[in-house]
Task: inverse folding
């Protein structure tokens, strides 16, 4: 019986002498497994098969005794050198009066491969669960989360460890009690269910979620596996679609959707259809080319090809109405891609531009009329410019003639005037004999009138030179304070005669200043300004202040306490032969050329004369000169 079992079993069996480790016998299954013949095996010790060292074998046997088990795990060496992991079951057996050991040997290789495959599959499943974009959670019998993936935790806005142990009513916004779970979540014995709900995230925000719940049994316990999908994007897309439908139906401008496959209308809104005399249902299914006049259909086909190539196009064209009339339209067309990015349809925005076209025609007529008016007006202006040019040339010629006449007459008059003044001076000094009182009075009148007339002639001559740009300037380095003192000294007698107080103030910053100018002409300007100030100041004071007005500019300011000048006359008094007659006797009135000459000289010197005055507040005339102007040679060149 023993021999029959030993020989016929498919399990590898050994009979081993425990004292020596010798293999007493081996069955046919051992012969097939190890690759040695039975005769060879009977000559071997079990330690020659075991890949462990004797000490390691003994240690394994000791562990088996301690753990009270009869199985051992060894690596066994085969005849071809390979090593196989085996599980060995041993026990005592009495054979022919000998105390021996029997050993059943089981190959562990296939079992280990299966276990590795199972472990690999488990890892793959875990990776798939962890990498899934949808949230996955396992609800246990007590309706708490016993397992979940990271996506589920992220949907709740929590850490993965935090969601383990949570209950649905802690995040589902539609649940407020444990009992409410039964109304929404399936019973453990129910079939799978799909439903939509809202979750409350950790930060309080709400999330639209679709849940697919499947009851499963784990270790005899009824659980629920839940696949949870964030529906926020889909809800937003659905809302956009609803908004589009509302816009599409209620828009006051034409909207249509056209198939890219056969160029027929898929959708048409009310405005688009009514503008063309149709109902929306009449246009759906029709070709878009049916709305074009025959002569425009080829260009319409080109537009369609361009739209499909570019993805969009804006253009003007013409559409037919149902009654056969046509009207201009502005079309903006864009393609709508499908999920694979291929053009699925075209959205058409259509606007009737009949009013705009009519306005453009009217505008063209208005523009044409305006162009004619502009042309006529331009011709009138050109004629006026020609006349003004001619008149200006005549004025220039007349002014030159006047200047030549004045210069000629001035020279002709100065000689006899000088003689009259000289002879009257001689008679007044009684060089030709004594003169009576009446004769002296008459001679003084002749002398005074002669000098006045000579001053007028000199002013006229200066003015004509300035206007003709013939005045020669003598440039030199001039100290502002020195030239001011010279002019100031010359006016002291006339101021003293009128009882007017004179004051000169030269800024300390100008002590070392030097300006490049014509000192005689500067003195002439200052004498004019000071003389006028004294003349028009019946009582009070006249001040000459010299200061730096700005970097590179020197100011000579003449201020009086006279009657002042109205603002509206500020420019007039700089005109030729213009006199300010306030409070003056006819004999005291000047030629009316002093300010005109002063301003002209100031411009030639690279400066200006300004005025600040008001009635009752006196006047301030200011001569502004640059500290450095062009040299005399440069000035002559420019002339």
Result:
């Amino acid at each position: 019986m023993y021999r029959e079992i030993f020989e016929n079993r498919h399990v590898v069996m050994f009979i081993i002498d425990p004292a020596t480790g010798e293999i007493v016998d081996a069955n046919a299954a051992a012969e097939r497994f190890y690759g040695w013949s039975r005769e060879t095996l009977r000559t071997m010790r079990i330690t020659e098969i075991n890949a462990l060292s004797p000490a390691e074998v003994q240690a394994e046997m000791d562990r088996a005794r301690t753990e009270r088990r009869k199985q051992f795990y060894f690596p066994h060496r085969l005849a071809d050198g390979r090593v196989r992991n085996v599980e060995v079951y041993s026990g005592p057996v009495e054979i022919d009066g000998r105390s021996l050991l029997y050993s059943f040997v089981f190959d562990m290789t296939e079992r280990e491969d299966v276990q590795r495959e199972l472990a690999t599959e488990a890892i793959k499943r875990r990776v798939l669960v962890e990498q899934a974009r949808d949230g996955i959670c396992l609800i246990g019998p007590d309706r708490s989360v016993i397992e979940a993936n990271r996506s589920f935790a992220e949907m709740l806005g929590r850490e993965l460890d935090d969601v383990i142990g949570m209950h649905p009513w802690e995040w589902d916004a539609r649940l407020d009690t444990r009992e409410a779970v039964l109304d929404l979540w399936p019973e453990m014995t129910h079939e799978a269910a799909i439903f939509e709900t809202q979750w409350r995230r950790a930060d309080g925000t709400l999330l639209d979620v679709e849940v697919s719940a499947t009851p499963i049994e784990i270790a005899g316990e009824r659980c629920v596996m839940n696949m949870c999908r964030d529906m926020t994007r889909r809800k937003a897309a659905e809302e956009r679609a609803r908004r589009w439908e509302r816009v599409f139906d209620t828009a006051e401008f034409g909207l249509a959707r056209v198939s890219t496959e056969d160029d027929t209308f898929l959708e048409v809104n009310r405005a688009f259809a009514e503008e063309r005399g149709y109902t929306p249902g009449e246009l759906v299914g029709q070709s878009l080319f049916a709305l074009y006049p025959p002569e425009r259909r080829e260009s319409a086909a080109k537009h369609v090809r361009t739209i499909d190539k570019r993805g969009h196009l804006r253009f003007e064209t013409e559409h037919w109405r149902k009654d056969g009339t046509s009207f201009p339209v502005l079309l903006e067309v864009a393609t709508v891609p499908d999920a694979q990015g291929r053009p699925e349809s075209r959205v058409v925005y259509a606007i009737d531009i009949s009013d705009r076209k009519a306005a453009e025609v009217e505008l063209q007529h208005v523009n044409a009329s305006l162009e004619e008016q502009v042309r006529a007006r331009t011709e009138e202006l050109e004629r006026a410019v020609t006349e003004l040019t001619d008149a200006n040339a005549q004025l220039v010629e007349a002014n030159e003639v006047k200047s030549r006449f004045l210069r000629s007459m001035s020279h002709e008059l100065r000689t006899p005037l000088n003689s009259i003044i000289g002879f009257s001076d001689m008679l007044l000094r009684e060089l030709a004999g004594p003169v009576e009182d009446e004769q002296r009075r008459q001679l003084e009148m002749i002398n005074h009138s002669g000098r006045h007339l000579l001053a007028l002639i000199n002013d006229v001559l200066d003015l004509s030179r300035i206007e003709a740009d013939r005045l020669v300037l003598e440039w030199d380095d001039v100290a502002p304070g020195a030239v001011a003192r010279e002019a100031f000294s010359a006016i002291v007698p006339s101021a003293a005669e009128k009882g007017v107080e004179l004051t000169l103030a030269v800024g300390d910053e100008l002590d070392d200043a030097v300006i490049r100018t014509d000192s005689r002409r500067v003195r002439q300007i200052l004498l004019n300004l000071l003389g006028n100030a004294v003349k028009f100041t019946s009582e009070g004071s006249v001040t000459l202040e010299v200061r730096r007005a700005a970097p590179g500019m020197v100011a000579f300011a003449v201020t009086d306490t006279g009657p002042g000048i109205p603002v509206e006359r500020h420019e007039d008094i700089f005109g030729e032969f213009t006199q300010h007659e306030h409070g003056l006797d006819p004999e005291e009135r000047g030629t009316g050329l002093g300010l005109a000459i002063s301003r002209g000289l100031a411009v030639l010197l690279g400066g200006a004369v300004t005025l600040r005055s008001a009635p009752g507040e006196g006047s301030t005339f200011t001569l502004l000169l640059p500290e450095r102007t062009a040299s005399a040679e440069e000035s002559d060149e420019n002339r």
